[in-house]
Every structure is written in C-alpha cells, then in structure tokens.
Amino acid sequence: MWNRRQFIKVMGALGGAIMTPFQWLGRAQASPPTDDSLPPGAELYEGFLLLPEGASVPKIVKAPRLQPPNMCGVGVKSAGYRPYAVTKFFSTPEILAHAVDFPMYALDALPEKLRHASAFVVSHETGEIYGASLGYDAFNPEIDGWVCNVSFWAQPDFPKPFPLGPASQRSLKV
To answer: Over the range 68-106, which residues count as b (16 or more CB within 10 Å of their CB) and which as e?
Structure first.
C-alpha cells in the first residue's frame, strides 16, 4: 500500500516526464531569429525590431492574428466582411485594468492641470479584444475647454517582433 508521500513523488515524476517534451517544443518554436534573417543594419531589442532607413519589414515579423474591427461599417461590401467594433466604456482606469487580461498602464499621480477623461475597450463582435485605451485631458484656455493631451493604447495582438523605423521615415515598406 502506498502512502501519500510516495504517491506524490510518483505523480510528480510522471508529470515532469510528460511535460518535458512540451517544454522542449515550446522552446524550439520560440527561438529568436538569427542575425542573417534580418535586413542589413536591423537590430532586435527587447521585442522590437529596429529597422534602418528604407528597410522593408522582413518575413520574420509575425503579423497579428486579428485585423482591426470595422469601426463604422464603411467598405464592408467591397472589402469583404469584417466584424464590427464593440466599444465598452469604463469609469476609471482601475475598472478597465480588471476588465482586460493584459497589462494596462496609467498615470499614477496626475499633475494639477490633468484629469482622467476616458477608459474603454474596443472588441470584435466575437468578444475578442482588439485594444484598450486610457485618455487624460488638460484644460486649454485658448478654446476654453478640455482636450485630450495624453492617451495610452494597449493592443494584445500586434506584430512580433514589433517593427520600428526611423522617425524621418513616414511609413514602413511591407
């Protein structure tokens, strides 16, 4: 008859033996691109692909799985069906942060002339989240009104590694 300790030891050993091949498989799939697969002058840095002036986005960049949802219905018939966007608003950044399963960053201590203005999630009709946003307004005395000066956008499904070109380059060649 086995006691509890023996049973736990055997189950732990079996679990480790069963999970080992899956761990190896995950490592093999997550191997970083080699330097010879990058355009000349490109550099990988902390999940970003820094591209030199005029470089095209290389094939190592994995495209996002989801396309942006259709925000207003324009072009649906001509471009094929794309799900419409569903926007859900929240009253505070904290409530928004609890509504998503990815990190959301917010300003901790607001400067005197800045106030929280918006917190929302944009989802596909299927419920899959496309992105989340936080906005902060500042008072503009020239127009006698509040305008958005600071905003954060978080998108869980994005190109990986994320390609960045120089500021002087208007858009990246795909």
So the answer is: ebbeeeeeeeeeeebbebeeeebeebeebbeeeeeebee
Question: Quick check: is 32 in a domain?
Answer: no
Q: Is the pTM of this model over 0.90?
A: no
Q: Decide if 22 is inside a domain.
A: no
Q: How far apart are CA 49 and CA 20, in angstroms?
A: 31
Maximal C-alpha separation, the chain: 84
Bond into 32 cis (ω within 30): no
DSSP 154-174: E-SS--BSEEE--TT-SS-B-
pLDDT tens digits along 53-111 = 888 889 899 999 888 887 776 655 555 556 688 999 999 999 999 999 999 988 888 88
The count of residues in the chain is 174
Count structural domains, the chain.
1
